[in-house]
Amino acid sequence: MPFVPALLVKLSLILVLGLTVVGLMRGFSPAARHLVLLATLAASLALPVVMLVSPQWKVALLPSSGSASSASAVDPGAKNDKLITSYLATSNATSDSRPSPAHTVSAASSVQPPENTESLSSSTRSACDSRL
User: Does 94 have pLDDT greater than 70?
Assistant: First the structure.
C-alpha cells in the first residue's frame, strides 16, 4: 500500500481509538481525559516519522500468475515428482546404487558465503569470512 493511504488509515485508527477512550472516560477527571487526548495527538504526529524510519514488510499474499512456483502452488507434489524423476535418472545411469566417496559432499563444503557482504554487519561478515 502506498505511503499516504497507509498513513491515513493508521491515523484514522489512532484518532478513533483515542476519542473512543476519552468518550468512555466521562467519569474521570478532565486532566486524565486531556492526558489521553495528548497521547493520541502525540502518536498521530509521530506516526509519519515512524513509518518513514521503520523497516517495511512486503509480503506477497498470492503468487504472481506467471511465476514458476505457481505450478507447485497448485500441485504440491509437482516439485517432488521432478526431484524423484531426476534422482531415478541419475541412479539408473550408475551401476552401483551407493554413491562413491568421490561423489559425496559434506554439508560444510556446500555452504557458500553471500556474494555481497557490504550490507552485512561486522559480526556477520567475520562469521562468513571465518568459514572460508
Answer: no
| Cβ proximity of 24 and 72 under 8 Å | no
φ, ψ (nearest 5 deg) of residue 73:
-70, -35
Domain ranges of the chain: 3-53
Q: What angle do CA 52, 54, 58 make, to 5 degrees?
A: 95
- Counting every residue, how long is the chain? 132
Mean pLDDT along residues 47-73: 75
Choose between 82 and 32: higher pLDDT. 32
CB-based contact 48:14 (threshold 8 Å)? no
Q: Which residues of 37-48 are buried (b: 16+ CB within 10 A; e: fewer)?
A: eeebeebeeebe
Burial class (CB in 10 A: 0-12, 13-18, 19+), 22: middle
Most confident of 29-33, 56-60, 83-87: 29-33
Q: Grid coordinates in use for 127?
A: 562469521
| Mean pLDDT (the chain, rounded) | 76
Cα angle 66, 114, 111; round to 5: 100
